[in-house]
Each structure stands twice: as C-alpha cells, then as structure tokens.
C-alpha cells in the first residue's frame, strides 16, 4: 500500500480497496477521507464499500469528492474542517492522492508560506508547482506556462488510446507522441464476461500500463481536468498544462453507479454483482456457482453503453451453468431491459430467442433499474407505459447482475469538445472533431453512432492514425470509418453468436458464411473469443498490427 506521510496527523495515498482498511487500522489510522467520486475507474471500489469496512473496524469516514483537477478553494476549506473534526491520524485518498494533497495545500496556504507547502508536498512525492501558479494567478491556471509540449497528445490509455498510439508509431516511428492517463493497470475488459463465468482468471485480463505502452510513447501519469482547444492546451490534475499540435481524445466512458439509488452501498454483497467491474466479476461467478434455486435478475440500462451485448452474455452463461448443474428448472431468470428489443441488430435476434426459450428466461422490456435494497434483496424498476406515464415495480432477487447507466467522463461533458449529449463531437466517417480540425477522437467517449466495443476501437484506430498524419502532410488521402462493431454473444459455454455490423445495423461478417455464420451459434466463434482474441488484443491491436482492419480510403 502506498502511504505518503505529510505530517503526524495526515497521510495521503491512492485509491483504497476494502481489504486495505484493515491494514490502515493496524497501522493506527483512526479516520479516512475519500476525495474521489465513485465510478471513475473500472477497478474502483465505491465509497460505500470502504465505509462499510471502516465502520466494522471503528474508523471514522468522510466523503469529500472532487472532479479530477477541479479542486476548489472551498473544498480546501472543507478539508481543513474535516481535519479539525476527525480523530487522528487521518488517511486521505483519491485516484492517485493528487486531489487530497491539493485540498491539503489549499487549506494550509492560508496560514503557511506557499514555498513551505510545496516543499512538504514534494517530500511526499507530489509536484504542486502548477497549483502555486494558480494561487499566484488569483485562482486561474495560467496557460502561458506549459509543463510539457508534444506533437500528438492522446487522452486515455485504454484500448483506443494504446491502439491509436501504436498505429501512429507504426507509420511514423519518430513521431512525438504522449499518452495522458493516471492508471497503473490496463485491463482487457472483454475478458470480464468470461471471468464472471469461471472461464478466465481475473489476472489474465490485467497488465501494467508500463508494460503495454508502445515503445517511444511518453507517458504522462496524470488525470485530465479540462481542455483549452483554442490555445491547444490540456490542463491536468494539479493545475499543470500540456500543449499539443494535435489531440486525440479517447478516455472511455464513466460508469454511473450512483444513478441507481442504493447500488453503491450493496455492490459485491447481498447477491449484487456486475461484470462491468474488475473486482466484481469473480463475485458473479461465485454467485452463479452457489445458486441452487430462486430468482436471478439481470439488468440493462438505457443506451448507450459499452458492449451492448454484455448484459445478456452474463445471463446466458449463468443459465448454461445452471442447466449443466441440474438447477435450471429451479431458477427464475428475469432480464429487465430498459430498451424495447433484445438486441439492436434484428438479424441476430432469432438465434438469441432460441436460447431465451431454452433457458426459460422471462424478458421484461421498458424496465429501468432505479433502486436496489441489498439487505432486503429487492430491486426497483421504473416501467414506462403506452401513454407515457411511468410506474415503479419491485422485484425480489437471490442474485442481481447490474449493468450501470453510462455517460461520457465529466471532464469531457463540460468541455468545448462535447456535443449537446456530452460526447466528443466527431465526424462519424473521418473521426475528426467537427469544430477543431486538429482534434480527433475514437472509442467509447465519441459521439459516433456505432457500438461501443473494443472491436470498434480496433477499426477506428488506423482511421485516426492515417487522417492525423494526412493533416500533417505525412500521408495522402482520407481514411473512412464505416461504423464497424462486433459483439461476440456468448450464448453458452462453447458457443457464440458472432454479431458484426456497420452503421445502420448492416450485417458485415469478417468470415465467409460457410466458416462462421454469425447468425447461428458457433463453436469456432467461441474458440476465437476464448483462445485467439486475447493474444490478438495484446499482441496485435495494442502493437499497431492492423490485421483485417486496414482503413478504407475515400474515392
């Protein structure tokens, strides 16, 4: 555990896991302050989970969340008030500790000279020089002083960001490329469905960020606070400024657990789980394996979400296990979908409906999860009617697999780069920003109407790489993205319905029908998902090897 001592009363560190609380208690800490909003990361335990662990050990907790890079003077004052109130010593944390140290510094700067505050922060490993400039500039971050400047800056080190960096460097090895991302771990998120089914070990889906970054990329390990596209600048956590000639925005999306009342407090307990979080996917398998009878409820929120097939993938694999174990007839499986159809591309629905009938699944459309009472094992859904009115329906459960509502990250939604819905406003064909010509985007945070899947990002990365270089005069012609997305629907252990489609839901199979007919369950498609796609991801997509995804050129 990374514990950075500021003084005898306060230590600061990165995100906690519930298991870390016991170690902090053993070390003598008496209180915790969480400065990170829930839902920022795919492996992030919610504040309610930490609070529950702390309460059991007699530690006090407080929740003072701040958006990355947007700590206010008022929050600094509030932090000081909490420090006066809480028993000592206190451990404060956020994603990396930067927001916590920033609040401490703003509080302390009212009584201590700024150089002394900076020195103490530096001794703990935090660079607050940007904050000093903000204090000296009356609360604003001066944009005329940049910490760094790069030809191409990529926001996000997920599948989209790493892939586009690799594609750029495969074309121009000496290009000055920087990736901004605060995460230490990179996750192969498509594998979490199989973790939740007991097929993959969680560790198989995780690698250190340092180990997978393309050679030659500069890694700025920080979070983005804001965009200033008029001055070609990005403001980072800690009020630091990075300049760019061209910008690629692909930070992924935000899982909005807080949008469902009571959900953060019960995740990982009381039979409530989700394959959308790294640390919860193993709990999904634990619940599936132990359930002998009762009601299992699987939810799907309103679109858009990442991997729209994932909610029902979890359900089919669970049902297949219960069938193989002889418990299927004793389990009432309910699929509560906020939408009006089982899947967005009609060609694949007949095959899926065969499994719905075989497993005895009860489909409930137009039902959106709005609240969960974990101890009472009750889920509440908002149900729309034909006249436009809504009503609430409660369902008891023995197991509840939740897919949270999803939206663009906060720093994107409030930025000049966002469209009216909060997504990065991109041309759907060129993936260039509609207003700022030197800004590109791809992946889940983009406004393009394609499925938000890793397969889509794999197809988008070469398009962005080519068009960015063409703008620099280092490539010719215009690459075009056709909306390709893929969703391997795991309908049972050993078989997959391989959905592949373009903009408008046009079916676009990669393989000839005699080899894999995507409209029918296939063992070969399962083999691709289980055996070939992980190495294709790690050794192909993230290395700039554009097998079967060379960009289509205009004209």
From TrEMBL:
FAD/NAD(P)-binding domain boundaries: 151-263
Coiled-coil intervals, chain numbering: none
Name used for this protein in its record: TIGR01244 family phosphatase
Gene3D superfamilies, A to Z: FAD/NAD(P)-binding domain (3.50.50.60), Protein tyrosine phosphatase superfamily (3.90.190.10)
Domain of life from the UniProt record: Bacteria
Beta-lactamase hydrolase-like protein phosphatase-like domain segment(s): 2-109
């Amino acid at each position: 555990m990374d514990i950075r001592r500021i003084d005898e009363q306060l230590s600061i560190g990165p995100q906690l896991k519930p298991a870390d609380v016991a170690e902090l208690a053993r070390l003598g800490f008496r209180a915790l302050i969480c400065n990170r909003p829930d839902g920022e990361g795919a492996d992030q335990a919610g504040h309610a989970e930490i609070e529950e662990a702390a309460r059991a050990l007699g530690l006090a907790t407080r929740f003072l969340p701040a958006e990355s890079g947007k700590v206010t003077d008022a929050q600094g004052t509030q932090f000081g008030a909490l420090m006066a109130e809480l028993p000592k010593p206190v451990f404060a944390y956020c994603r990396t500790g930067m927001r916590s140290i920033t609040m401490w510094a703003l509080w302390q700067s009212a009584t201590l000279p700024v150089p002394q505050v900076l020195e103490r922060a530096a001794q703990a490993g935090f660079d607050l020089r940007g904050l000093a400039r903000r204090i000296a500039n009356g609360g604003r971050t001066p944009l005329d002083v940049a910490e760094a400047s790069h030809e191409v800056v990529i926001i996000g080190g997920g599948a989209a960001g790493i892939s586009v960096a690799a594609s750029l460097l495969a074309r121009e090895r000496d290009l000055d490329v920087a990736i901004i991302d605060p995460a230490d771990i990179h996750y192969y998120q498509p594998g979490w469905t199989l973790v939740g089914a007991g097929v993959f070990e969680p560790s198989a889906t995780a690698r250190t960020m340092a180990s997978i970054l393309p050679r030659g990329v500069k890694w700025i390990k920080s979070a983005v606070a804001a965009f200033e596209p008029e001055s070609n600048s990005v403001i980072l956590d800690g009020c630091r400024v990075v300049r760019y000639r061209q910008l690629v925005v692909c930070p992924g999306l935000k899982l909005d657990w807080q949008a469902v009342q009571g959900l953060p407090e019960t995740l990982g307990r009381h039979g409530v789980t989700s394959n959308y979080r790294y640390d919860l996917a193993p709990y999904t398998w634990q619940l599936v394996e132990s359930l002998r009878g009762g009601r299992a409820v699987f939810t799907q929120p309103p679109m858009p979400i990442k991997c729209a097939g994932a909610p029902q993938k979890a359900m089919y694999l669970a049902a297949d296990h219960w069938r193989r174990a002889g418990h299927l007839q004793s389990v009432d499986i309910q699929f509560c979908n906020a939408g009006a159809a089982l899947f967005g591309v009609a060609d694949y629905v007949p095959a899926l409906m065969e499994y719905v009938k075989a497993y005895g699944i009860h489909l409930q459309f137009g039902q959106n999860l709005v609240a969960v009472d974990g101890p009472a094992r009750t889920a509440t859904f908002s149900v729309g009617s034909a006249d436009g009115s809504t009503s609430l329906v409660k369902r008891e459960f023995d197991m509840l697999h939740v897919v949270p509502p999803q939206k663009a990250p906060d720093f994107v939604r409030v930025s000049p780069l966002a469209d009216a819905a909060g997504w990065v406003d991109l041309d759907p064909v060129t993936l260039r920003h509609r207003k700022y010509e030197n800004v590109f985007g791809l992946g889940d945070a983009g406004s393009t109407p394609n499925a938000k899947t890793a397969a889509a990002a794999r197809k988008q990365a070469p398009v962005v790489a080519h068009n960015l270089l063409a703008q620099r005069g280092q490539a010719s012609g215009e690459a075009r993205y056709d909306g390709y997305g893929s969703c391997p629907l795991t309908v049972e252990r050993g078989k997959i319905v391989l959905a592949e489609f373009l903009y408008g839901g046009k079916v676009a199979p990669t393989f000839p029908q005699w080899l894999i007919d995507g409209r029918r369950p296939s063992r070969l498609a399962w083999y691709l998902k289980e055996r070939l796609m992980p190495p294709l991801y790690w050794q192909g997509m993230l290395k700039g090897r554009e097998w079967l995804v060379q960009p289509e050129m205009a004209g």
